[in-house]
Amino acid sequence: MKKLQSSISLFLIFIFAACANAQTNTVQSQIRYLALGDSYTIGESVTESERWPIQLGTVLQSKGFNISETDIIATTGWTTAELMDGIKTASPHSEYGLVSLLIGVNNQYRGYDFEIYETELIELVDKAIGFAGGDTSKVFMVSIPNYGVTPFGQSRGENRIRQELLEYDAYANTIAKQYGIPFLNITPISEKAKMDPSYIAEDQLHPSGKMYSEWVELMIPTVEKLLSGQ
């Protein structure tokens, strides 16, 4: 009888420990995601659920990653300097398990000196890494979509816009490599809008939810590796 009671006690202790470990692992596996950017990140002219950071979080959830929160610091029209001001106002902490950065189109659109982008992009990358607790393996960057192919862009010089944005993206890619951060090139997807209007939102400028879904499809393999520590 004593042996039976002892066995039951050991079994209960084992079950209790297993449950406690499971709860601990659940808490540890929670991932908070921060997306930094401008109109392309906040999803101008699409619904909240169609924004690519929201879609990304949803897909990651379906793949077993516990995305407990998706925070977005982005506003239509923001330049690199305005994003930095927005970050100061929002004052996010440094406990994010995933951080993305997509910025620069409004520097180009307003005709700002390229040197401004060069300086301020590095500052923003440093901030993004800081929000990831200093861990570059939790950060990724995204290229600027080519709005030159949209009806709005075509009326303002499609070729010039494309060439200038390629310069921005080339620099961003160089910085990403220096930091060891993935640079995800969604620009070819954005150029599908030239032949297919379904890739453009009703404002004739910004991406549609369909385009954002394709961005996410491209992002998923890389982001999965980041979150899996590969």
Task: Describe what this molecule looks like in 3D.
The structure is a single chain. The protein is an alpha/beta fold and 230 residues long. The protein has a single domain (30-227), classed as 3-Layer(aba) Sandwich (Rossmann fold). It is 54% helix and 12% strand. It contains ten helices and five strands. The protein has helices spanning 2-28, 39-42, 52-62, 80-90, 105-109, 114-131, 151-154, 158-179, 187-190, 209-227; strands spanning 30-37, 66-74, 98-101, 139-142, 183-184. It has a five-stranded parallel beta sheet with strand order 2-1-3-4-5, with helices on both faces. Helix 6 crosses helix 8.
CATH topology: Rossmann fold
What spatial order of strands do you see in the largest sheet?
2-1-3-4-5
**Proportion of strand residues:** 5-15%
| CATH architecture label | 3-Layer(aba) Sandwich
CATH homologous superfamily designation: SGNH hydrolase
Largest sheet: 5 strands, parallel
Q: Which structural class fits the helix and strand makeup? A: alpha/beta
Q: Percentage of helical residues?
A: 40-55%
Summarize the structure.
The protein has helices at 2-28, 39-42, 52-62, 80-90, 105-109, 114-131, 151-154, 158-179, 187-190, 209-227, and strands at residues 30-37, 66-74, 98-101, 139-142, 183-184.
